[in-house]
Design brief:
Blueprint (H helix, E strand, L loop, with lengths): L12 H10 L4 E7 L5 E6 L2 H13 L3 H8 L3 E3 L5 H6 L3 H8 L3 E9 L2 E10 L8 H28 L1 H25 L3 H15 L3 H9 L15
Antiparallel strand pairs: 1-2, 1-5, 3-4, 4-5
Helix pairs in contact: 1-6, 2-5, 6-7, 7-8, 7-9, 8-9
Length: 229
C-alpha cells in the first residue's frame, strides 16, 4: 500500500498509521466538527487525502457528508459505478480525476455525539468490504475519536494565530452565504450551493470566493443562473 500514498505527513502518522496498516487504503484524513458545524482538519497522511477532504467541504457532497449525516460508514469500493457517481455529480468525477478509485468514510463518535469524520481513499477499486473489515474500521474510528478531539483542542491553543485565520475564513463563508442569500433572494442552502458551484468552476476555492463576495468584488445577482445548483 505504501506506493500509492502522496507525500506522507510524518506528524500525522500516530493517528493515521492504524488506518493505513489495518485497512486496505492508501491515505487518510481526520477532521473534527465543532458545535456550530465548522470543520477542522486535524491531520492527514498525504496531500491527496487532504485535497479530497477539502474538496468535499467545498462542494458539500461526498462520503464525508454521507457518514456525518447518517451516522454510519459510507463505503464506496468502486467510484466507476454509476450509482456512486450519480450520488456525487460534482465531487465524484473530481475525485476520480485526482486519482481516487475507492472512498470510505467513518463517523467519529464520543459517546452519542458525532465529533468528526475519518476519510479514507484508495487508488485502486476493490471488493466490497466484508463485515469483519467494516468492524475493524469502526473500532479504529472509535479509538481515534478522543485523541483527534484532544489534538484539535491542543492545536487551537498552541497555534492560535493559524487557527484564528482558519476561523476567520470559515466566518467569511457564512458571511458570504448571507450576502448571496440577499443578492438572489433565495435560501441559505441555495446560496451556499451557488458559492460552491462558482468555487469549483473557477478553481479558486470556497474561501477565496467567499472573500471576493464579502469584499464586494463578486455579486451573484450579476451572474444570472450560470452557477445554479
Amino acid at each position: 500500500m505504501g506506493s500509492e500514498r502522496d507525500r506522507p505527513d510524518r506528524e500525522a502518522s500516530p493517528l493515521c498509521a492504524p488506518f493505513l496498516h489495518g485497512l486496505p487504503v492508501g491515505g487518510v484524513s481526520i477532521s473534527v466538527v465543532g458545535d456550530s458545524g465548522e470543520h477542522s482538519t486535524v491531520t492527514s497522511s498525504d496531500s491527496l487525502a487532504a485535497r479530497l477532504e477539502s474538496m468535499q467541504f467545498e462542494l458539500g457532497e461526498g462520503p464525508h457528508w454521507d457518514a456525518l449525516k447518517s451516522g454510519r460508514p459510507a463505503l464506496h469500493n468502486d467510484l466507476a459505478t454509476g450509482a456512486t457517481l450519480s450520488a456525487w455529480p460534482v465531487f465524484g468525477p473530481a475525485a476520480w480525476h485526482e486519482g481516487a478509485r475507492a472512498l470510505y468514510s467513518f463517523p467519529l463518535y464520543l459517546g452519542p455525539l458525532a465529533v468528526g469524520v475519518i476519510d479514507l481513499y484508495s487508488r485502486e477499486a476493490g471488493d466490497p468490504w466484508h463485515e469483519a473489515l467494516v468492524g475493524r474500521g469502526l473500532d479504529l474510528a472509535s479509538a481515534a475519536a478522543a485523541p483527534a478531539v484532544e489534538l484539535a483542542t491542543r492545536s487551537a491553543a498552541a497555534e492560535a494565530p493559524l487557527n484564528a485565520v482558519v476561523a476567520e475564513m470559515r466566518r467569511e463563508v457564512h458571511q458570504a452565504t448571507g450576502m448571496v442569500l440577499v443578492q438572489l433572494d433565495t435560501t441559505v442552502d441555495t446560496a451556499l450551493s451557488r458559492l460552491r458551484a462558482y468555487a469549483f468552476a473557477s478553481g479558486k476555492g470556497l474561501d477565496g470566493v467567499a472573500a471576493d463576495v464579502v469584499a464586494g468584488r463578486l455579486d451573484f445577482s450579476e451572474l444570472g443562473d450560470q452557477y445554479s445548483a
